[in-house]
Amino acid sequence: MNDGFHFLDIIFFAMVAAFLVLRLRSVLGRRTGAEPPPAQRQGPEGDAGASVIDLAARRRSVAEPPPESPVGQGLAMIRAVDRDFDLDGFLGGGRAAFEMIVAAFAAADKAMLQPLLAPEVFRHFAEAIDGRARNGETLSTELVNIRSVQLVEARLDGSFASLTLRIVSEQVNVLRDHEGNVVEGNADRVIDVIDEWTFRRDTRSSDPNWVLAATRTPED
Prior knowledge:
The protein has a single domain, classed as Nuclear Transport Factor 2, Chain: A (Roll). The protein is built from 5 helices and 5 strands, in the order αααααβββββ. Strands 1, 2, 3, 4 and 5 form a 5-stranded antiparallel β-sheet that branches. The N terminus is likely disordered.
């Protein structure tokens, strides 16, 4: 009987995973079909376009950066080549992508991470996951709250649009060894985490998906 329930659990989680993969399409801004003819779906380093989900159906009204600011000028350049770009949708998608990537990294789910990350970023994530596995360590991450998601950089390099989000979140992170002893972190402590994530896509491509191309922790 227990084996039967275990089998049903496997089927259920497989169905949930399939649903999430389907929902992970066309995010961080939508396109309606009025875009230029498709070009090669290859990035400057040769990475194929990848999906990032828009799980956030609700729209958020955000303040536009001043047109004369570097961010405002970068946005204007991106909108000039992608008339369907939507900043509210992009920020909502960025928040959803952050939640999913943080959870997948903690769970060592490389299959979930790969379509969301540029190849170089995925390589670094995969190396960290493999390092934990070699050491017999496990990472537990609870994303308590995302306090803010702010656009801090926008630029257009050739046909490639890059947008950087500063994400301020509250997390509980605990790294344990193979015996369950805490190596790093505190299960009873919520910490503030500031990340800056850069998403990129080829505006000439018919693929509307953005990929996480860089991550950094600001020093200030």
